[in-house]
Amino acid sequence: MTAAAYTPLAQQRRTIDWIPILVGVVTMATTLVFLVYPLLRAIGGAFVPNGEPLAVENLTFANFERFFISASYQRAFWHSLVVGIAATSLATLLALPLAYAVARVDIPFRRAIVALAVLPLISPPFIGAYSWIILLGRNGLITRWVAATFDVQLPSIYGPFGVIVALALGYFPYVFLIVQGALAASDPYVEEAARMMGASRWRILRTITFPAVVPSIAAGMLIVFIKVLGDFGVPSILGGEYQVLPTLIYYQIHGFFNLNAAAAIAMVNVALTIGALGVLAWVNRRRTFATITGVARASRRATSFGARLAASLYVFVVLFVALLPQLTVIVSSFVERWSGSRIPLIWGLGNFKRILTNLNQPVINSLILAGTATLVCVVFGTITAYYVSRKRFVGRWALDLTIMLPFVLPGLVVGVAYLVGFNDGWIVLTGTASILVLAYFTRRAAYIFRSVQAAVGQIDSKLEEASTLCGADWATTMRRVVVPLIVPAILAGAILVFATLLGEISVTILLFSAKWKTISIAIYEYVISDELHNASAMGTVAIVMTLVLVLGASRLVGRSMADLFR
Amino acid sequence: MTARTLQVGALTKRFPLPSGDIVAVDDVTFEVAEAEFFTMLGPSGCGKTTTLRMIAGLESPTSGSIVFAGQDYTRVDARHRNIGMVFQSYALFPHLTIFENVAYGLRVRGMANDDVRSRVMRILELLGLGALADRHPGALSGGQQQRASIARALVYEPGMLLLDEPLANLDAKLRVQMREEIRRIQRELGIMSLYVTHDQEEAMSVSDRIAVFNLGKLRQVGRAEEVYSSPATPFVADFIGKANFFKAARQGDTFALSNGTAVRPKQVFALPADEADVAGFDTVIMLRPERLRLDPARGKIPCRILRRQFLGGIIRYSVEAEGAKQTLTIDAPRDVAGGGEGSGAFLDFDDGDAIAYGNAR
User: Fold this and answer.
1) Would you say the C-alpha torsion A306, A309, A313, A316 has a positive or negative sign?
2) Same domain assignment for residues B261 and B308
3) Residue A135 maps to which CATH number?
4) What's the number of domains chain A is made of?
5) How distant is the alpha carbon of residue B61 from its chain centre?
6) What is the ipTM for the molecules in this complex?
7) Rounded to whole angstroms, how far apart are CA atoms A212 and A207?
8) Where residue A71 falls among pLDDT bands split at 50, 70, 90?
9) Interface size between A and B, measured as CB pairs under 8 A
10) How far apart, in whole angstroms, are the C-alpha atoms of residue A506 and residue A515?
């Protein structure tokens, strides 16, 4: 070969690569306008009386003082705390034996069990709430059956009991998935070492196994607590008179359009969340030991008949109860009349026909809104994640933190921030489709961001250097090397975002307008007006759509459905 | 036409840190000739890789210049330098076949499909990878991946080839085989190559010249023989082969050992301030293990034998002596009479084998 066919252009000075700079500026600007700005305005609004502009002379604590004066505020605060702690505890109590049974006892259908346990997370959580009305409501199937058979009137599920149970059953898979993963991955040699030293099975569980998964348990509990605290659908359907902070926010806005009061309540709600994060940090403080090593050996599973029987029974019962809502929704969606008897009177597709002929607008709306928001999330989340992982710049941690912030903010809080931020001032978006899209984007960009950030972290930065030395510019390197390698992560994140947005209610309930009603709002309105069969048909559509999407996502990335939620 | 040489002048790289700058590369100057195989050798963190990355254009120098074939490369973007680089981790694109990996640089240059095919297949044949063109990198062994990454770096006929610890991830046997192959291809193509390694045997076996780095500074450049027999600093002496240091005091041209024996070394070098701990003393005499003789009756320095190891071709004695920096190593061609462990003996050497390091007279 001859020396050189390609002469380098030494005159070609190092030109400033504008693309990454442009990308960085756009990213920062987007974050500031659609995240920081509404949040700051909401915080400001919390300190101003209703209807007054944000100004120094208007500053007041009046909105917060209601927590000391108004009985309904105080009740809502304590109710939130009680529901949060109770539902989280119940979820954990359900999930821990389940996790142990699946990870450490040799039971059949293990993979199917893990896949089924994800279902409550996929279907919109408030679907569970109204299923319980179908089953245990004043006119519910079980209520009537018990009344007819035993002549016993069951206690009402409206109120704290129903809310706590529905939330615990809706969110327990978070604890289950995380702890089961940790239990299955922990180093079997450590436990064998304890056995060799003569420790009993119970002692090993108490002194070795359990302490090792405490951080996982805490992390799972934190997620459940945050989700429960921010949940609007379940308490608004099952709560009745029993108000929590999210429902209080909702009534302040829908009853009085008092955005300032809503902002103050939202801040208190966030303060509780931050408190929970603090507790998690405290729990994990001294637990920095590496619990999970790269041991390729699976941990030991109990094989005795007794253990297997007990574990299988427990798993079956918990899963059955947890999936009962989804089952109920699907069954009752095919029922046209079901009154006064144990078995449905008329089966049929009438409910679906009604949705298709008259009520298909919400489905179309949801698809458009969720689809657009997903697209925005993908573009923004991918670029930002790449930028944050690869480039060194001032304030990188701030960008990272800001994007992850809505991840812990309850949906209703983001909704309030958007109402306050974009109702007047520079940008007015109230009542438009864009406010929904942007709020969805704010809430979910973190999904893509995290997914892509992990994927970029897996890519050796030398690949990009190799591409540059081969003569490729930044855009070519991105197109030919980086993007092809992170596409699975982007798609998985995108499908997850899209699927969870189809049933999104906490942001939607505050920001939707008559023209942009979504599936979740339609279901919610059916439930409120007691048209449960229509709600079920709509719910079935939502469940099936999300299930198909999430299954598709897991196929795509070659990871189990459960891994997408861990 | 200008000679296609590489001139690195006063190259410096500082990484700013809140606790004070780290000087990764400190005022490094050297020149590499056309078609030369030039190795940068040193322990990790010595600045050799940073220097290589600045030549590649992946790091920008704080100061100094890089000139190649008469053109100033210092501020030229990496992608315009027409340099081929081989990474320790191979850095093959996992989603592309071996063929497409190698073709990458040609496609970026907008070469027509037919030309790409013939050029890629020619280089793959040269590296013995012709049959694996359609495989993905994951399906190849470490050695094959390394060959593919060499092919990718060479296919667009770069002005120079940079190799950053290319053999570090291979097992010992393959390492020897691959380094011979790299040398063969380098000779065949006549391409200037800059090779970074921390393995002195590797450096000595393949290089035309070796540049030894320590603490960000270039300590010596020379052929393997020069660097071994006339190491310019105590670090070079210690890093390449084994070195025995004796405390000495300078008296004009002669050096007095701690028992008073005067030595007139073949060469005297200054002792860099940052290498005082390598030498152990302000002024030292250095001798290679095979240049020291062990004698039961007489010699320059009395000593005591601590251990005798039979290593096949040589017998290695570990001895202690007054004024030595640490336990001394002596490689003898055969057993020394009366050289049992624990017995006393004497060390002897020729002044012409000694190197001195020191400062003021």
Assistant:
1) positive
2) yes
3) 1.10.3720.10
4) 1
5) 22
6) 0.84
7) 9
8) confident
9) 106
10) 18
